[in-house]
Design goal:
Pfam families: Copine (PF07002). The protein has 5 helices and 5 strands, in the order E-H-E-E-H-H-E-H-E-H. It is an alpha/beta fold and 198 residues long. The protein has a 5-stranded mixed beta sheet with strand order 3-2-1-4-5, sandwiched between helices.
Length: 198
């Protein structure tokens, strides 16, 4: 099980942090701003383009699960699928990921609560338990990890480490990203504690 034979998952941040985290890096515009002319890509489109075109070649079954989190409608402990008609079916191509992002994003109301990656990681963990093979979760997030979510996200990460699942977190926009250092510390400390108990 390796990168050459992997199941890809993307998770996209729809919190209101996207409205302000492009002050320096995206001319003060929302990180989810869609250019009507199609000439300017927002940071998410750019990330999906660069990652998708490369990594889609490593996805054997061409089923890429894409979800969103942090929006105003979805409960804080859940994610929403870009393919709601069949959540486990996923997008079949890079073009479909792009098109669904382009079509869905204008209809989504951003949520005003801090990003919580615990539910995102647990969703990916559930998929990894159900579907055989190596899995890669790529999370595109625009903000700091709130202090109240550190422990939950760290625990979800440690639980995920028991499965063939890699987690990659990519920051969108200006940052700052200090809390992610704390997240790494909490995760490592928790994992070390669990190892000592076993």
């Amino acid at each position: 099980m390796n990168l050459e034979s992997s199941n890809l998952m993307f998770a996209i941040d729809y919190t209101t942090a996207n409205l302000t985290c492009g002050a320096q890096s995206f001319d003060g515009k929302s990180l989810h701003m869609l250019d009507p002319s199609g000439e300017v890509m927002n940071p998410y489109q750019e990330a999906l383009t660069r990652l998708g075109r490369v990594l889609v070649e490593f996805d054997d079954d061409r089923s890429i699960l894409v979800s969103g989190f942090g929006d105003a409608k979805t409960p804080e402990n859940a994610v929403f699928s870009f393919t709601p008609e069949n959540p486990m079916d996923g997008c079949k191509s890079f073009h479909e990921i792009w098109q669904r992002y382009h079509d869905l994003t204008p209809t989504i109301k951003l949520g005003d609560k801090p990003a919580n990656l615990g539910p995102v990681i647990r969703h990916a963990t559930a998929v990894a338990r159900e579907v055989t093979g190596f899995h890669m979760l790529i999370i595109l997030v625009s903000s700091q990890l709130a202090t109240e979510h550190l422990a939950d996200t760290a625990q979800a990460t440690v639980d995920a480490s028991m499965l063939p699942l890699s987690i990659i977190v990519i920051g969108m926009g200006d940052g700052p990203w200090v809390s992610w250092n704390l997240y790494c510390f909490f995760s490592a400390k928790l994992a070390h504690s669990l190892c000592r108990k076993t």
